[in-house]
Backbone:
């Protein structure tokens, strides 16, 4: 049980983001996307800027990936790779519309001398992988069911040298792991059980007995698509009940508005990749 007055300690992070300069809902590859819904392009950039400033204000470093015309989902920088302790496991997107984003991410890492491992298997980076350095000696949680394919979990384990726990996503609204589960510090998570198969729910309950459990309302408001530095939790402002639960557990919720990129089926976490050196 988490004590109410627990003092949480933030750890400085390095993030990667990509401006929504070319963001649009130009196709529909997840249940949240509707090409007839208008997007306010100016507001999208303003909200994304505020998110970037929020991270900087919390003392983190933010690197920028150059957005490319014709790749409207590039703002979802979390999907381009998965980085653990200096090794980058590259993405291979499921949908043709996003396939070219992988090369932009690869170039970013290779130009800066990161150890980049090209994937053979379909996987969408941090969209379906989460890393908890202090859980069970360093654990990767990995989703499959909609985007990342199961063989990618074994490939990631070989690439990164960390045990990978496969979790089966069963609800198409939670098509990536990072809409259903997030690390809130180096050893604990918050998640929405209903997004997972019954067996995966049991696995999560066994591995994380102190996890914070979110309800369907907060999960559907993209509340779990959050970024935490171990103390400050940046999350979608619509997930107010989850914010209350996090506060009660000693974290500081930092709500942000991301109404425009949400129309593409993503929120805070999708816009932010963590560069773990
Ligand atoms: C929170 N999620 C699911 C993400 N990690 N990424 C958002 C990707 C959105 C994009 N339109 C797509 O459908 O791929």
Residues:
């Amino acid at each position: 049980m988490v004590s109410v007055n627990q003092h949480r300690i933030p750890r400085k992070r390095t993030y990667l983001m990509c401006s929504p300069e070319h963001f649009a809902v130009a196709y529909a590859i997840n249940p949240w996307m509707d090409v007839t819904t208008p997007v306010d392009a100016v507001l999208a950039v303003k909200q994304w800027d505020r998110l970037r400033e929020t991270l900087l204000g919390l003392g983190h470093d933010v690197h920028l990936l150059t957005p490319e015309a014709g790749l409207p989902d590039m703002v979802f920088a979390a999907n381009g790779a998965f980085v653990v302790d200096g090794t980058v496991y590259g993405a291979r997107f499921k949908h043709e519309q996003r396939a070219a984003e992988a090369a932009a991410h690869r170039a970013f890492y290779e130009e800066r001398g990161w150890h980049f491992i090209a994937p053979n298997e379909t996987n969408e980076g941090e969209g379906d992988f989460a890393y908890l350095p202090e859980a069970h000696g360093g654990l990767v949680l990995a989703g499959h069911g909609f985007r990342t394919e199961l063989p990618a979990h074994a490939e990631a384990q070989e690439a990164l040298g960390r045990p990978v726990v496969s979790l089966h996503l069963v609800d198409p609204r939670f098509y990536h792991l990072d809409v259903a589960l997030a690390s809130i510090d180096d050893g604990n998570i918050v998640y929405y059980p209903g997004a997972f198969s019954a067996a995966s729910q049991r696995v999560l309950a066994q591995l994380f007995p102190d996890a914070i459990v979110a309800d369907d309302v907060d999960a559907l408001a993209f509340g779990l698509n959050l970024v935490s530095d171990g103390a400050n939790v940046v999350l979608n402002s619509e997930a107010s009940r989850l914010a209350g639960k996090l506060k009660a557990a000693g974290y500081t919720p930092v709500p942000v508005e991301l109404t425009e990129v949400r129309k593409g089926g993503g929120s805070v976490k999708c816009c932010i990749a963590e560069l773990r050196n």
Summary: The helical segments are 41-57, 101-111, 150-160, 198-207, 216-220, 240-248. Residues 29-30, 33, 73, 76, 78-79, 98, 127, 176, 178-179, 225, 264-266, 270 surround NG,NG-dimethyl-L-arginine (CB under 6 Å).
